[in-house]
Design brief:
Blueprint: H1 2-38, H2 40-51, H3 71-84, H4 86-90, H5 105-108, H6 110-113, H7 124-127, E1 130-132, E2 137-139, H8 141-150, H9 163-175, H10 202-212, H11 214-217, E3 224-225, E4 232-234, H12 252-262, H13 276-286, H14 321-326, H15 330-339
Bound molecules: heme C (2 copies).
One heme C is lined by residues 83, 86, 103, 105, 107-109, 119, 121, 123-124, 141, 144-145, 148-149, 152-153, 168, 172, 189-190, 243, 247-249, 254.
Length: 342
């Protein structure tokens, strides 16, 4: 009896081992089959997506009515006002001081930096301080704001410890407060248009401009001033009162992306009014005309980091300034992929 019992016991534990092994093998086969069926990349990206569902939704700015009625809330509201009506406070006839060209931040950062693909501030709080190759330094939000003052508003920098700078930074941080650190939500910044297979064409662009843009921005890109001349009803696109040659919009990809999703005024990323070709060509036209220039000698200390469409040499490749300005950009991109270290 004793013998049979211990035989039974060892049979049992053997069975258990066999079943466990079979189960493990089946699970493994199932896992491998899944990976094979979906492809290893798909499998990885499915795993990633699970954790970042929110990121696939279009970003929405926090509700302005939720700004608290506290001292901090007042600072945020003042910051929003400065972004929307920059010229009133800081333009040529500014009531605080005069350091910018009469444009408003909002002219380019639409709806005070809250419009999806309208050059919004959704990803500023989540990604700054940020290393930027243009300066070769780690940039704070204050530094980035001053880049726009000195280039997009063709003006002077604002002191980092001024009440106005603190207010603008507080507002920008509030706009992006719900975006997790390090993340870029869908709808951040600008749309990136695919490159054309040809250079962007200023002559075609003039046709687009005369037909679609003059009604608001004027025949000579001069814009339309407010009657009290404190700013612009429709901002200028070139000439002495426009952004300078160091501004982001002076790069064709930025201008084309901005215009595609936002102009003529009222267009949105999901209801654009221009084709990609029209957007690239009108960018080429507007950025061929005279505007204030900026000394850019300190920019891009590492020239190999210059964006493909940065229109000023020297470059780390052999393509001309002409091609870096108007394209075709694909050959430059291909070359860059081949030569840049992984
Ligand atoms: C003439 C257009 C224009 C004006 C006016 C302008 N900006 Fe900008 N700004 C840009 C462009 C273009 C970019 C870069 C977008 C890109 O590269 O994706 C930018 C980028 C920024 C960024 C960084 C955004 C990011 O996600 O990294 C901040 C912050 C900013 N601007 C603040 C301001 C403030 C504050 C003002 C007003 C004082 C201002 N800008 C006025 C065009 C403008
Ligand atoms: C119905 C009037 C209207 C039309 C048409 C229009 N815009 Fe605008 N545009 C505006 C207004 C208004 C702003 C400023 C938005 C704000 O402050 O909220 C603006 C801003 C801009 C800006 C950024 C600010 C600047 O001055 O640099 C660019 C670039 C621009 N428009 C390009 C174009 C182009 C190119 C076209 C034609 C394809 C066009 N717009 C058609 C009204 C218009």
């Amino acid at each position: 009896m004793k013998g049979t019992q211990s035989n039974d016991q060892s049979m049992h534990s053997l069975m258990r081992v066999v079943i466990t092994v079979v189960v493990i093998v089946l699970i493994s086969i199932g896992g491998i089959a899944c990976v094979l069926m979906l492809g290893p990349n798909k499998f990885l990206s499915l795993a990633k997506q699970d954790k970042r569902v929110v990121k696939d939704e279009l970003w929405k700015a926090p509700d302005i009515r939720t700004i608290p009625n506290t001292e901090e809330g007042e600072l945020i509201k003042y910051g929003k006002d400065l972004i929307s009506f920059t010229s009133k406070y800081l333009g040529p006839k500014g009531i605080v001081m005069s350091l910018s060209n009469g444009m408003n931040c909002q002219n380019c950062h639409l709806d005070a930096g809250t419009k999806p693909f309208g050059n919004n501030y959704s990803a500023v709080a989540s990604t700054y301080p940020l290393f930027r190759a243009r300066s070769g330094t780690l940039e704070t939000i204050e530094k980035r704001v001053n880049d726009c003052f000195e280039r997009s508003l063709n003006g002077k920098a604002l002191a980092h410890d001024s009440h106005e700078m603190k207010a603008m930074v507080a507002y920008i941080q509030w706009v992006g407060k719900d975006v997790p650190k390090g993340e870029l939500p869908k709808g951040a910044g600008l749309v990136l248009l695919p490159f054309l297979n040809r250079p962007a064409n200023p002559d075609n662009g003039k046709l687009v401009y005369d037909k679609t843009c003059t009604v608001c921005h004027g025949k000579n890109g001069e814009g339309m001033a407010l009657t009290d001349s404190t700013g612009w009803l429709n901002p200028p696109l070139w000439g002495p009162n426009s952004y300078n040659s160091g501004a982001g919009l002076f790069r064709l990809s930025r201008f084309a992306g901005y215009v595609k999703a936002n102009m003529p005024f009222g267009a949105t990323y999901d209801a654009p009014q221009l084709t990609d070709e029209q957007a690239w060509d009108v960018a080429a036209y507007v950025n061929s005309l005279p505007r204030p220039s900026k000394d850019l000698t300190a920019d891009w200390p590492d020239i190999s980091k210059k964006p493909i469409d940065h229109p000023f040499g020297p470059y780390a490749d052999e393509f001309s300034e002409q091609q870096h300005k108007f394209g075709p950009f694909k050959p430059i991109e291909e070359k860059k992929k081949l030569t840049s270290p992984k």
